[in-house]
């Protein structure tokens, strides 16, 4: 149990330690949202299919997408209900994803590392970086595996890979990021007490 709490604290603490507020003006200039992560974020988008457009802002499938809540998740709300402008959303997230299958294997079709590869293959040349916001929400599956396997070193490897993937996107010209983390220790996995 001690390892579990250590992993949760590390993951939650990193998210808070590296978080910085985004100026309100960023929302007014954002035209493209790129999302990478796991089931918290997936809408079932396939970048080889219909890309986002004014008539279908999350591309394929149409809103609300194929979410784990069977309705709009946070991505759908940001795209369609919580803004006053058109935001085209490229959501590469997959249920069950980990940061990298080479570190923590998963049944998910694509890890975050592979999601970044899909972005580079299908979408990178089509996006204007200056008006894009990149969102990462990953970690629950990585921390869970570290806990169940009793291998806390996995968390360090995952965090290192996470920042390598961020650097790939920085090197590609992105400068606006939202980094979301897993639930903290007081309310792990959505529990109130």
From TrEMBL:
Taxonomic lineage of the native organism: Eukaryota, Fungi, Dikarya, Ascomycota, Pezizomycotina
Organism: Fusarium musae
Protein name: Acetylesterase
GO terms of molecular function: hydrolase activity, acting on ester bonds
Gene3D superfamilies xrefs: SGNH hydrolase
Record carries keyword Signal: yes
Keywords associated with the record: Signal
InterPro entries xref list: GDSL (IPR001087), SGNH_hydro_sf (IPR036514)
Superkingdom as given in the UniProt entry: Eukaryota
Signal peptide positions (record): 1-19
